[in-house]
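Long-time lurker. I teach an intro course on protein structure, and each term I like to show students one example going from raw sequence to a predicted 3D structure in token notation. This year I'd like something fresh instead of my usual example. Would anyone be willing to generate the tokens for the chain below so I can use it in lecture? Attribution to the forum is fine with me.
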Amino acid sequence: MSQNTFRASTKDRTLRRSDRGQLTNVSRHPHQKRLKSVKKMKRAVAVILLFPLGLVTAFTLIEMLWRAVIRLEFWRTEEVIFFVVGGLAWAVTYATGWRPVRSYVFGHEVSHLLVARAFGGKILDWDFSATGGYVETNKSNTWITLAPYLLPFYSLVVLLLFGIVGMFWNLHGMQHVGLGSVDLNFKPVWFFYAMLGLTWCFHATFTWKTVFIEQSDLQRNGEFFSMLLIFLVNVLLLVALFIAASPSPGLGVAEVGRCWAATAGSVWDFFLGSFW
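-- Reply from a regular --
Happy to contribute to a lecture. Here you go:
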């Protein structure tokens, strides 16, 4: 797969050509100095903000999962069972050697495109194939360049489709289908949970593979900052899925928030005790 799946904005590419045309040291050009300054600022944000937030949120997720395993019937809920079924289906297909790279690149580029449009950018050109793709826009920022790693595109498509279908059909109602002498009883929402699990694992697999390739998307914002932001957002998405699947009101938003605050306090005390 091509390593360059996102083109810089037209303005950025024009400035780069201007930089290369300078007779003096390019690193001294005001545009290059500004880029270096922005990267330093983002690195500072990553160290001061993203790292502790990601650490505390990950520990919170682990604790909530542990509490769910020990105290609740979490793993017996329909949401979890069929989400895992979908994840296992993806694992089996991936293990057989199937690599839907073209589908991934399509979702990757459309994520860039949609977020660019959300920020008011114009799409000048875009394309995709099994070997790579690009989106050419007149606007570029952190959220646009990192969109494919932050948003599980196909999971969002599944959520949208089932939200629309759910407006006209009771997805939680038991359906009965006869196949000859066999009667099948199922809920349509089971398919939704399975597809959500499959597409989420698809997103996680290709995100994991892609971030360890030399990606221009990550370099543009600084790899350290980009990796931490990707980690934090994806952990937050997992926390949201956990809350949605929890069978107990005791593990809702309020309890997760309380647990997060307690974990943050413990982490803070640990670092204070280690360095002071």
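Some talking points for your students: Residues 182 and 201 are 32 Å apart (CA to CA). The two ends are 48 Å apart (CA to CA).
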